[in-house]
Amino acid sequence: MKLNNSRFKKIQSYEEGKGDVLDAESQLKAASYKKNFLKHFISINQNQIDLRLGGEKYYVSRKYDGEYAIIFF
């Protein structure tokens, strides 16, 4: 993966970059990974938890305002 460091913008204690920080090959690879990874997710509400989930370990994500976020416990 090749990053164009000059395209990052410093925001408080981290740097943020848009899609133009990556070379074209890396952009395609990231888009493909996201598409293939996210298709395995299911959407559930609180009434479906006991019916759809089992086990003791969970990986939870939440889509909020169109932004994808994931939390690991």
What can you see in these coordinates?
Helix content is 26%, strand content 25%. The chain has helices at residues 24-38, 49-52, and strands at residues 9-11, 14-16, 59-64, 67-72. Strands 1-2 form a two-stranded antiparallel sheet. The protein has a two-stranded antiparallel ribbon with strand order 3-4. The chain is an alpha+beta fold and 73 residues long. The chain contains two helices and four strands. It is elongated, with a radius of gyration of 17 Å.
What does this entry show, briefly?
By secondary structure, the chain is of the alpha+beta class. It has helices spanning 24-38, 49-52, and strands at 9-11, 14-16, 59-64, 67-72.
Task: Using brief descriptors, characterize the structure shown.
73 residues; alpha+beta; two-stranded antiparallel sheet; 2 helices
**Largest sheet entry:** 2 strands, antiparallel
Structural classification: alpha+beta
Helix and strand element order = EEHHEE
The pLDDT mean sits at: 78
Strand content bin: 15-25%
Number of helices: 2
Unreliably modeled segments: none
How far apart the termini lie comes to 28 Å
Q: What strand order characterises the main sheet?
A: 1-2
Shape: elongated
State the helicity in percent bands.
25-40%
* Radius of gyration computed on alpha carbons: 17 Å
The total of beta strands comes to 4
